[in-house]
Amino acid sequence: MNEDIDFDVVIIGGGVAGAILAKELTRQKATVLMLEAGDGETDSLEKYRNLLQNYYLADIKIPNSPYPVVRSPEGEAYAGQPTVLDDRLMNNGGASQYMLQAGPMPHRSSYTRILGGTVLHWLGTCLRMVPENFEMEKRFRCGRNWPLDYWTLQKHYQKAEEEIGVSADVSEQGYLGIEFEEDYVFPMHRVPPSYLDKVLQRRLRGMVALHAGHKLPLQVVSTPQGRNSTPNRFFNGGHGFKPKGAVGNPEVGQRCIGNSSCVPICPVQAKYNPLKTLASATREHLQVSARCVASKVHWDKESGDITGVEYISYDAQGRLNLEPKKARGRLYVLAAHAVENAKLLLNSGIRSSSGLVGKNLMDHPVMLTWGLMPEPVWSYRGPGSTSGIPIFAAGAFRADSAAFRIEIGNWGWNWAAGAPYSTVDDLVHRKNLFGQGLRDRLGEEAARHIRFGFLFEQLPTSTNRVEVDPGQKDVLGIPRPIVHYDVDEYTRRGMSHAKSVSDQIFRFAGIEDHTHYNPADPGYVDHDGEGFVYFGAGHFGGTHVMGTRPETSVVDSYQQSWDHKNLYIVGCGSFPTMGTENPTLTMAAMAYRTAESISARLTGK
Amino acid sequence: MILSVSQLHDFLQDALKLEHMTIPPYLTAMYSLHESANDLARDIIRSVVLEEMLHMALVANVCNAVGGSPCLTRQGFLADYPAPLPRSEGDFEVSIQSFSPDAVKMFLKIERATAPQDDDDSFETIGRFYSAVQAGLRRLAAEIGEHQLFSGDPKRQIQPEHYYGPGEIVVVTDLESALEALETIKDQGEGDCHTIWDGDDFRFQEAREPAHFFRFQQLLAGRLYQTGDTPSTGPSGREIEVDWTAVYRCVENPKVSMYGEEPDLVSHAREFNHLYGDLLRLLERAFNGNPETLQSAAIRMRELGFRAVELLRQPLPCEPGLNAGPTFEYEAF
Predict the structure, then answer these.
(1) Where are the beta strands (DSSP E) in A382-475?
(2) Does B166 sit within 8 Å of A251, measured CB to CB?
């Protein structure tokens, strides 16, 4: 076997967690090898422009659409990845999907394997987890406890917010137990609320919603985002903050200018992406090898120490390097995504003493409701969401039903109904409009489109899991991930409560409800005679859970493997609970915590 | 030679007019590039335009600091192209044209540097013009006292959070900051201390970039500057592709009167000019005690960009082979 030069740290995965670790560790002069399974043509201005071209030319603008995939001569991706269209069950038309869906329900999220990772196409919503999430088991007798609490993660949250460049005002964000260090300010002032947000805020003034037997006042609150806005001159003890623009062209992207295509790609890179972090790593200590798919982790059966990571490489033209290689380092970090980390471990015979590798798979199922506002709100403009209603993200009701966060969407019915294209279709074919009349009506209607997204928590359970089967290999001969997934009663009860809250909001604000759920939809679930449809938020987690003991968890609070001392397994897979907050910020904060631990180890402190 | 505060105000007003004057030609050249070609040329011109806007803000800060009031809406502020730079020796005229070797050569003339020299009432280069202003500031500060000279209301200063783009705004409160502000303009235009670099790396901890003059020179030379190059060696970095044919060629120094036969063109051009007038009014507001208005100005600029592009893609029937373009003329308010 071909042996690579030894490095201090080998990182598998070039996404946000891997990038943060690469930057922190190379800064400390550690030598780092980063292996990325997907393509690497992303990290220069020119390459990014090619991504934009891909997006403009794509027929269907799904989140993966800008990001190129290198394929075998038979057309199969070497670094396979699920798209949002891959929601058929294995035994019902889905046998050729990369991520096999064993059911009973489809996991509807996707991820992207490319240098920069899935965060390339995130929306930018950047929330801290409410403190309750860290002790669900203790408080509500369901879920699990984290091996650390909110306050312990505090300074790492700050580091993450600085690296990502988060725009928010502290005065609005101290709700549901979230607290900040004295005098803390975010790097940038909040992204201004959209006109739509302001209209909704006015129309919801004074509203009290009934939820699970309790009355709660509703408030529209700005959402912290990893998106460039006006720097706060008081940040960092008065040193201020310089927003990071586009990689290779820092003058571009210093502010969001409303391109409104955040998902899947920000043309000016005003939205954070991990390429910015990679670009500021100390390059002389960093080797990035793209198109290298880790296939197996080798480990010593006696000591448990990892001895190398075997990988298969391919070139940009799709030619395979048939000679397997092995990357070696003093320490190893798996940062390949919750599903890919689990898959790699399972393919290496690593289930951990707890047996929990691959188990406790969670997502944020997303339920949409949509309608027509009584007045124009001028949707389809600006970042995908600039405000939300956070009040249902925490509370005693979580002993019984799932918490949820309400995201207020700025992009009308695009996700819910394929609008405005579907609107044109409707007006032409069903209302027989054309010419000026069509244009007037389209403009009038589309301007009033509003959409709410409800993101639900899921409880960790061993039946939701990633598995592998040697009989189901991908084109590289590596067993593919097989996902077993369901949306349980706890979450469905939450969906039912949320739908009721939605109905109350629509009534109070005078919104004409156009929500409908089709029983034939892959994400259709019912509860007590009511039916709902869920989508995936793209938030996989839980598959290598953190905990206090090797019997009941895979990694400790530094994401270090209990069984393999020179191995760290990082990412949302470490999360014991998912809460309702988009997980990227917490993942980044945890990556900083892990970086500290690895650093200390390498320098012998 | 600047001998009085009122003369200083005149010079600073001319500086504002001068910095602004380069913007319509640079923007027209930039917007005339075909969308899918010449990314590098577009990036270069764009980076220079953004810095000219910084220069306007810097001049406004100096002007406000010494008790002046920047004016952008008086007749005469908008140049009637082709026109010489204010207080120049008049040996060449700035004109509005689409991207071409001649256009870039004109840019070089605008940005050119030369050895420092004693002051005069007309200047061979922009650099010399600013050196004269700096000399005037020093002289007046010594004569009437620094505190007396820098008596302007600090609230009128454009602050870092109001401005975004390359480099940083200098808040002007005294002689040192005033000289710093003007030095920034000179360095970004012609290069710091006879080098090709603009000094932004030590001044603002930014990536090292050549000064405007040398940035444009790269386009004609077909190569980039790199570390180690000097003004006499010329660029020795990697070769770059400039497609001089991938351009919407527009008539030189377009005027609304040239569009007489085309009512649609006339109304588009006048709408552009109306919007441009709005922009100047907003900038004047921003520079006269309402710095937060700069944000609204930025929004206007985006809108103007779209409209400029629209005009540049319209063929001009009376001039076969040439297109129309924005005219940057005063529109009756």
Answers:
(1) 387-389, 404-409, 449-456, 465-467
(2) yes
